[in-house]
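User: I'm writing a short methods note and want a consistent example. For Nitrile-specifier protein 5, I'll paste the sequence; you return only the structure tokens, no commentary, since I'll be parsing the reply automatically.
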Amino acid sequence: MAIDGRWVKLAQKGTGPGARSSHAITVVGHKAYAFGGEFTPRVPVDNKLHVFDLEDHTWSVADAVGDIPPPRVGITMAAIGTTIYIFGGRDLEHKELNELYSFDTCTDVWTLLSSDEAGPPHRSYHSMAADERRLYIFGGCGNAGRLNDLWAYDIIDRRWIQFPSPGESCHPRGGPGLAATGGKIWVVYGFSGVELDDVHCFDPISQKWTLFDTTGDKPSPRSVFSTAGIGKYVIIYGGEIDPSDQGHLGAGKFSAELFALDTETNAWQKLKDFSDAGEHPGPRGWCAFSSGKMEGKEGLFVYGGNSPTNDRLDDIFFLTPSL
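Assistant:
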């Protein structure tokens, strides 16, 4: 089945977070919550929890209390039910972090759930996905280099689980795609010193890793792209396809392409783009992104990120794929 996609650029009212990259966003109901990020490379902007109403397109700031996380970049965020979770990142002194925080969107209370010796080692530019009960953390940049470990936090038992190592075929990496779909955890691409184009799958029941030989219209190697698990598909957009020789201080070459991986057939498909003029986000990476629904349709939200000119962006787009 051929899949197409349509982007829509969303209007923004009120005072929003402004341009930034290396931040995170997640959706609860009809609201998107954004946290963290940088405007100047490696300098965290703030620690406000910004809230975007997907119905009236108005920004506000949550009147948050409790264990409010300090500013950070390279974080991840996911939601289960009405609770948001953020993990890790890097602080103003470029120190890797490993705290897990929750934010109750009903009470506006932050809670520190774990830190230091509990849970995964410190990291930034890792990936997070969630199902109905668990948060999954994979890879990223740690204190001693890039990582390829997979962890889960069980929100019912309130404990961390470390899964078996994927082995040498799965290189340690930053900026990978991660999706929980079909009862399995999918690790897609990433950066290991070079851009990667491999796909690995972990089955939590059998505790086994599989390296898949994917087929179809395969994306070129890339990292720091936007990812969403929608149905049986892993959707990816954009990302860095050629790193900058300045590292994180510069802008590499970015993609504007959309692809879908069918996790049942292991076939990639490039999505035909039926967006109207001016509605497409264009080439970018290091975005905040989340799956979510708008007007009853499931899709991918993309907010901000870095551009080919190394300018941080502040726009919001929603992709609706024809699944």
